[in-house]
Design brief:
47% strand, Lipocalin, alpha+beta
Length: 185
């Protein structure tokens, strides 16, 4: 009898996970990084404090990134980034709210090339963006990968003329997120 009940609960759990409507980033398994190539100095930073959610019934995808979560190879870079450029105390979070353009069956394993359209809110400026990416589904895990470029001036981020040779006008951004079905606890 216990074996039948255990088997039934296992089947229900798998069915529920497979038909999940909401996926949320696994703790510390998602990251956003950026890279700035310039004549005098390359700057790269990674943030693993990313919150990401996908609602499969509507194809909505959202990211929230605490700006103070970016980690740099040099502490002084991190300080300048937070205090002088993105002004983390004034604009603590960068958000993206958008939709996956293509229809995906999240119940089937596979890799899907997708386009995402939405708005990126960074440094108090909201702009529409569109980018390509890949969504891979394996079991109950969803992996999202994307790379795009942003022009820092478009988001009101000012680079003092003294540092123009140190910071690129266009920054490469990479997204790497691992999501799992969201279950209320």
């Amino acid at each position: 009898m216990k074996k039948i009940i255990s088997t039934a609960l296992f089947v229900i759990a798998i069915t529920t996970a497979a038909s999940a409507q909401l996926y949320r980033g696994k703790a510390d398994a998602s990251s956003i990084s950026f890279f700035s190539k310039s004549p005098l100095e390359d700057i790269d930073a990674t943030n693993k404090k990313v919150t990401v959610v996908i609602k499969t019934t509507t194809n909505d995808i959202q990211f929230a990134v605490p700006m103070i979560g970016f980690k740099f190879p040099k502490p002084l870079m991190e300080e300048h980034f937070n205090e002088n450029y993105v002004e983390s105390s004034k604009f603590p979070t960068c958000t993206f709210k958008g939709k996956i353009v293509e229809t995906i069956d999240f119940t089937k394993d596979g890799e899907h090339k997708v386009n995402v359209k939405g708005t990126l809110d960074l440094h108090g400026v909201t702009k529409e963006i569109e980018t390509a990416g890949t969504i891979s589904i394996k079991g109950t895990e969803v992996h999202v990968v994307s790379a795009f470029k942003i022009k820092v001036a478009d988001y009101g981020i000012k680079v003092p003329s003294l540092y123009v040779q140190n910071i690129a006008e266009i920054v490469d951004v990479k997204v790497n997120a691992v999501l799992e079905p969201f279950t209320k606890k």
